[in-house]
Amino acid sequence: MTDLIHDPKGGMPRLLEIMRRLRDPDTGCPWDLEQDFASVAPYTIEEAYEVADAIEREAWDELKGELGDLLFQSVFHAQMADEKGLFDFNAVADTMSDKMVARHPHVFGDESREKSADQQTVDWEVIKAQERAAKQQDGVLDGVAMGLPALMRAVKLQKRAARVGFDWPSSDDVMDKLHEELDEIRQAENRDEQFEEFGDMLFVVANLARHLDIDPEAALRAANAKFTRRFGFIEQELAKENRAPKDSNLTEMDRLWDAAKVQEKAQKNLKE
């Protein structure tokens, strides 16, 4: 196996053997041996977001490495499951293959491919509902993973409820509800009430995003990137005078923020 571990073209067998060696009770890595499903899970989530970040930035030179990091997380979990006699990596791959074949009868079965992508999405949801029923997940909201980011889970919960008619008729109704929630935050009399009303407001914001057909996670990531970019401009401009933000004031930094917006708009117009 030593030759396989050092074989640059070893592919999946090489990665699986490296993971097995890392978890070897006698010769493995102490850190890897200390891990369990719960301790590795946050790294798995982080790696998924780093894949999304590379794609969003179109950093194609980084994407291969980020996908590898995410794949390693699956390998790590599968190795720990194998050690407990639950399943191995091949079972994971087979389960995924079975699922994809079952969910694509228009590709792997006898159903016609002559339907729109929207219709295929509807059919996909029907098949998923059948799978949940087979698992005795009969509740409308059953099966929406608890470990999802809260904003993403809110949208998924709302989509499920909307399928059975529990939904606002239009985005205008959701906006009215958002104003109502903002008023309730203003009227909150203590920290507990503020906490609850703030959560309600975020839930309505997620609902508004769904009605506007906007991915709220992607929108917030874009807003984060914009804030980082514009604040970086402020730092760069102040650095020209050997100053930092702590040496400035809100009025000056607001002015520089507006200058950053003007610069971005000009750059956007040039690209167009």
UniProtKB/TrEMBL annotation:
Key word Hydrolase present: yes
Domain NTP pyrophosphohydrolase MazG-like span(s) in chain numbering: 35-108
GO terms of molecular function: ATP diphosphatase activity
GO terms, biological process: dATP catabolic process; dGTP catabolic process; dTTP catabolic process; dUTP catabolic process; response to stress; TTP catabolic process; UTP catabolic process
Entry's EC annotation: 3.6.1.8
Keyword Hydrolase: yes
Catalytic reactions on record: ATP + H2O = AMP + diphosphate + H(+)
PANTHER family: NUCLEOSIDE TRIPHOSPHATE PYROPHOSPHOHYDROLASE (PTHR30522)
Family: Belongs to the nucleoside triphosphate pyrophosphohydrolase family.
Name of the featured protein: Nucleoside triphosphate pyrophosphohydrolase
Naturally occurring in which organism (per UniProt): Sagittula marina
